[in-house]
Design brief:
single chain; about 290 residues; alpha+beta; twelve-stranded mixed sheet; two-stranded parallel ribbon; 5 helices; globular; disordered N terminus
Length: about 290
């Protein structure tokens, strides 16, 4: 039931760069098939911008703007820091290492509902919330000794997004609440989505609901498909210092390994890589032969 706190880093990583990590500018275009993935229009589906005025984060007293750069604005209070990337509006907040935290609300249903209500009341579109996921943070080693058995320490509730019934993978809004309803940690990235991209994704999903068309599409893909991620909307993540851009994708695993990465295919079955994947690959050290 409980998961090690390390697993929590997966949902926090998208925002922690704002508090001192690294990021990159927009890389080169995705590829030749990009025009089949996105169509730039002037009609976005609204997102949500989280800022300090809407937040219940316990930042403390004597709040000052300690960093003011084109790619990061960070406010520091006596209890923690709240940061925003002005280029894409990703927001993240964490307590100082020596700040008091908790006590935390540990009832899952109550915590999930309160986090959902918190973000919706702040302005996040309620009709875009597809589900609320939960991550459990535990203390203890789990070795079996009663003194080291895992004990539930806190809960992170994560809002996941869908538009026109299609999941938006990189959008996220999560928070950790205390028993008084204050926020000790949070991260939000919920950008506007081009309406043409959303419509294209919905139409693609409707088309592949036909079993014959679904089979014909799979036949275009390379190799055996071990797991289908289905039709999704991807967008650039907070590591890209630019206005977020969205893409329509059929995601699939083409390896038997459970940990195999999802590959992305456009409406014609042509594979593409997201800008953040291109940037990560370019930044990774080359293997020595």
């Amino acid at each position: 039931m409980f998961q090690n706190a390390i697993e929590n880093a997966r949902c926090m990583a998208a925002g922690l760069f704002l508090l001192g990590g690294c990021a990159v500018g927009a890389p080169s275009p995705v590829g030749e098939s990009e025009q089949s993935l996105t169509t730039a229009t002037a009609v976005p589906i609204v997102g949500y911008i989280h800022d300090l005025s809407r937040s219940r984060f316990r930042i403390g007293q004597a709040t000052t703007l300690e960093v003011d750069l084109p790619t990061m604005q960070r406010w520091r209070g006596s209890f923690g820091a709240f940061a925003v990337d002005p280029t894409n509006n990703a927001a993240n907040a964490i307590p100082n290492a020596d700040s008091p935290t908790g006590p935390y609300l540990l009832d899952v249903q109550t915590h999930n509902q309160m986090v959902k209500d918190y973000f919706i009341s702040a302005g996040l579109p309620a009709d875009q919330v597809a589900e609320v996921q939960t991550i459990y943070i535990a203390t203890g080693s789990g070795s079996g000794d009663s003194s080291t058995r895992p004990v539930l320490h806190s809960i992170n509730s994560i809002l996941r997004r869908a538009i026109l019934g299609v999941r938006v993978i990189e959008s996220i809004a999560w928070a950790k609440l205390t028993t008084t309803g204050d926020v000790d940690w949070e991260s939000v990235f919920w950008p506007p989505i081009d309406a043409a991209v959303a419509s294209s994704a919905a139409a693609f999903a409707a088309s592949l609901a036909d079993s014959t068309k679904h089979a014909a599409f799979l036949a275009k893909l390379p190799g055996k498909i071990y797991k289908e991620g289905g039709i999704v909307i991807h967008h650039t993540d907070p590591s890209i210092h630019a206005a977020p851009r969205a893409y329509v994708s059929f995601d699939a695993q083409t390896e038997a390994r459970l940990s195999a990465a999802m590959r992305h295919f456009d409406v014609n079955g042509v594979e593409f890589r997201l800008p953040q994947e291109q940037a990560a690959q370019a930044a990774s050290p080359k293997r020595q032969l």
